[in-house]
DNA sequence: AAGAATGTTATGTA
DNA sequence: CTACATAACATTCT
């Protein structure tokens, strides 16, 4: 274990807070969950997500903060953990299972104030009951920046990500380059509803599938990237067959169909 | 085996 | 203070 990489022992159910990030299961069993847990002898009170930030509240008042970033991953091991785990940043363990966290952008122990500071700088999270969509609309409506860029900005709204931004814009027939200030309240309402629906579906599926299930059968067996979306990472639009284009927005490619999403 | 990738923030410039 | 671009960081897979 490298210096400074403290290992914490806790247990939890992550399935509701990972937003399309899948837990890699190292054994045939699908998922691990636990009701109660200990953190170095301290009870885990709960896990909460704001956007893609995960917070672990412990009975000693401290709050763990994890952000998976691009590479962060939880691996579930049934039974005892592998001994050799030099890159593990957090270990979640109970007698029958171990979940190891590797590669996160953030993994730290802090206070409730540290958590509040992070939450304060985030826009409304479409997955949360307490989200106020009006806040997001107001920050969009006074910007000229393209909506495709704004959807990735955490202070506009939090937790959307590159797949859902492309798929939500597609579902609303909205070109990613449309300026924020050109988004009407009605158009925003549709977009917000789509994002909420898609993210909730992701929680149910524990992966990202944006296909309308009345229209498309779920892909069976192993699916590759670009098989569970309409435009994201596709060569051709699933709906109309037009070649998919990308535009760089927020430093990342935004996939869109020029026919289904006219200017 | 270089390069891409389901993310975000800090920092510099205008 | 706002807006925008770029760099930085994490790791695995093809």
Could you explain the architecture of this structure?
The chain is of the alpha+beta class and 263 residues long. It contains 5 helices and 11 strands; from the N terminus they run βββββββββαααααββ. The strands form 3 sheets. A 5-stranded antiparallel beta sheet has the order 2-3-4-5-9, covered by helices on one side. It has a 4-stranded mixed beta sheet with strand order 1-6-8-7, with no helix packed on it. A two-stranded antiparallel ribbon has the order 10-11. Mean pLDDT is 80; it is low at 1-7 and 25-36. The longest helix is centred in the C-terminal third of the chain and has 21 residues, at 185-205. The protein folds into 2 domains: 24-120, Alpha-Beta Barrel (N-terminal domain of MutM-like DNA repair proteins); 133-256, Helicase, Ruva Protein, domain 3 (Orthogonal Bundle), CATH 1.10.8.50. The structure holds a DNA duplex (14 and 14 nucleotides).
In short:
The chain is of the alpha+beta class. Helix content is 21%, strand content 22%. Helix 4 (161-171) crosses helix 5 (185-205).
CATH topology of the largest domain: Helicase, Ruva Protein, domain 3
Q: Report the radius of gyration as a whole number of Å.
A: 20 Å
Topology pattern, helix = H, strand = E = EEEEEEEEEHHHHHEE
Distance between the termini: 53 Å
Q: Indicate the structural class.
A: alpha+beta
Helix content: 10-25%
The CATH class name of the largest domain reads Mainly Alpha
Strand portion:
15-25%
Mean pLDDT: 80
Main beta-sheet strand count, sense and barrel state: 5 strands, antiparallel
Low-confidence stretches: 1-7, 25-36
CATH architecture of the largest domain: Orthogonal Bundle
- The total of beta strands comes to 11
Strand order of the largest sheet: 2-3-4-5-9
The tally of structural domains comes to: 2
User: How many helical elements?
Assistant: 5
Report the principal-axis shape: globular
């Amino acid at each position: 274990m490298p210096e400074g990489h403290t290992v914490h022992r806790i247990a939890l159910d992550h399935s509701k807070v990972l937003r399309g990030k899948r837990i890699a299961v190292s054994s045939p069993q699908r998922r691990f969950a636990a009701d109660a847990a200990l953190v170095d002898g301290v009870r885990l009170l709960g896990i909460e997500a704001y956007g893609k930030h995960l917070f672990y509240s412990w009975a000693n008042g401290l709050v763990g903060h994890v952000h998976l970033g691009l590479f962060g991953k939880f691996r579930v091991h049934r039974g005892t953990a592998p001994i050799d785990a030099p890159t593990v940043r957090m270990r979640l363990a109970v007698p029958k299972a171990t979940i190891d966290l590797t590669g996160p952008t953030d993994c730290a122990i802090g206070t409730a104030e540290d958590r509040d500071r992070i939450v304060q700088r985030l826009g409304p999270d479409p997955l949360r009951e307490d989200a106020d969509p009006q806040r997001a609309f107001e920050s969009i409506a006074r910007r000229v920046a393209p909506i495709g860029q704004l959807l990735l900005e955490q202070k506009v709204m939090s937790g959307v990500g590159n797949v859902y931004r492309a798929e939500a814009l597609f579902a609303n027939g909205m070109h990613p380059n449309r300026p924020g200030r050109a988004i009407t309240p009605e158009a925003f309402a549709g977009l917000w509803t789509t994002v909420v629906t898609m993210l909730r579906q992701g929680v149910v599926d524990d992966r990202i599938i944006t296909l309308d299930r009345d229209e498309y059968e779920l892909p069976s067996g192993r699916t590759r990237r670009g098989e569970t979306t309409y435009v994201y990472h596709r060569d051709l639009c699933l709906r109309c067959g037009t070649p998919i284009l990308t535009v760089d927005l927020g430093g990342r490619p935004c996939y869109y169909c020029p026919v289904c999403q006219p200017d």
